[in-house]
Write a structure and sequence with these properties.
66 residues, 70% helix
Length: 66
């Protein structure tokens, strides 16, 4: 059976959007709650979401760059 190659450009675009979502989440969280220090113990959940989105975005973009 012939397999269809997954376009690298689509994967790179997806990981770029994940990275942008991480930045957007950090900005939205800061504007909503006035808490720009995500390392404070009160905001550890927001830090976790931001770190995961940014981390997966960067690693994915590095893996799927041209």
């Amino acid at each position: 059976m012939a397999e269809v190659a997954f376009p690298r450009r689509i994967a790179f675009l997806f990981y770029s959007l994940v990275f942008i979502a991480g930045i957007a989440f950090y900005i939205a969280w800061g504007l909503t709650y006035g808490a720009w220090n995500l390392l404070a113990p009160d905001w550890i959940g927001a830090y976790a979401v931001t770190a995961i989105l940014l981390g997966f975005g960067v690693v994915g973009m590095l893996l799927y760059k041209d």
